[in-house]
Description:
By secondary structure, the chain is an alpha+beta fold. It has helices at residues 23-40, 53-60, 62-84, 124-136, 143-155, 207-211, 259-264, 271-304, 312-332, 337-344, 348-375, 382-393, 399-405, 408-429, and strands at residues 4-10, 14-21, 89-99, 106-114, 119-120, 159-162, 172-181, 184-197, 219-225, 239-253, 306-307. The strands form three sheets. Strands 6, 7, 8, 9 and 10 form a five-stranded antiparallel β-sheet that branches. It has a four-stranded antiparallel β-sheet with strand order 1-2-4-3, with helices on both faces. A two-stranded antiparallel ribbon has the order 5-11. Helix 5 (143-155) packs across helix 8 (271-304), helix 9 (312-332) packs across helix 11 and helix 12 (382-393) crosses helix 14. The longest helix has 34 residues, at 271-304. The radius of gyration is 34 Å and the shape is flat.
Amino acid sequence: MSIKSEIKKLPKSQIEINISVPWEEWKKHIDQAASDYSKEIKIEGFRAGKAPRNMVEQKVGKQALLEAAAQKAIQETYPKIIMENKIDAIGGPKAEITKLAEGNEFEYKVLTAVVPEAKLGSWRKRVEKINKEHSKKKIEVGEEEIDKELENIAKGRVQHLKVDREARKGDNVILDFEVKKNGVPIENGSSKDHPLILGRGVFIPGFEDNVEGMRAGENKEFELVFPDNYHEKSLAGTPAQFSVTLKEVQERKTPELSDEFARSLGKFKDLADMRKSVAEGMEEEKKNEAKEKRRAEIIEALVDVLDVELPEIIVHEELHRMINEFDMQLHGMGMSMQQYLEQIKKTIDDIEKEWHPQAVKRVKAALSLEEAAKELEVSVSSEEVEEEMNKTLSQYKKIKDVEKNVDLEKLYRYIKGMKQNEKVLKMLEEIQ
């Protein structure tokens, strides 16, 4: 007798599979469970793995033996049912035993999510309208915009000139400082040769005011109260003693926009050449921004006509992917997720609730582009994917690094999806 299964479709792309394992098959799993137990437990008079089943059953209990056999039966039969019925299951299945006895068939049911059936409605006219509206818009860079960008470049190369005078707002100062609470140094409360631009408000209120007017070589002690909302709760709203030694005062001088300044950057013959290059760069940036905006509108148009029931497991996975991406960004800034949550006074549950709608949008966007690829008959060859993979993998010096750090199958899927989406969006942009 073969294993029987009955599949029921449920809302939100879920299915329930009722599975019946005949006694002949079920008995094998019970015997195997008894054999495994006999290797693990000690029964006097028998070597490990050689004790008869009835003695194993007496030792561990019949219910425990059947439950262990049930887990083995599920692990073996469920994947077979999935493959035989060509079910695209996603996420972790939830199994529930419905009949557990000896001498009868073993029955259980599984609740699992499947890849959702998505269908795009009428989207062509919407995309045509978006493309027409964007084609009318001219991309221009005004002279004032260029002037402002040149000023920003100059400010980014500000010179720090040592001066022998009192420190003023706008100066860069180099100082040593120590902070104490009740005469005891606080953790991470001291620094040597610390640079500080006065007037930026980086330190707690009052600190920079006290530094203003000091000269190089001068020491000053003063007391300040930490703000009530200070991120370190043990210090919030409490007084502390500050000791500051000013080591150097530097006047910040922005270089003049001139031919000489342009040439100092190493790639321009004069200011006019620099201005031309900046204008071209700004124009390219605006083109990219316009392109991204157009694509975002096209994707939104596709999502609006997408008919799909999303299983929560897909949304949940996307949500956690978003959180992991954000966590990596925070680490790049020297902050942990826990520190961030404490700072904004929220829990990870709060973040998940807030980001849930965005996760839904991201999943729908991916499904929309996948369906559009089918309609437009877009495909990506293995040669294209492998070429891009080789570029990525070339960053790793040793093959061992690849084996250790890269999931090749996952990378293949990612690159294929990325290249497919790029092809689809290019075709959609050309629809007039």
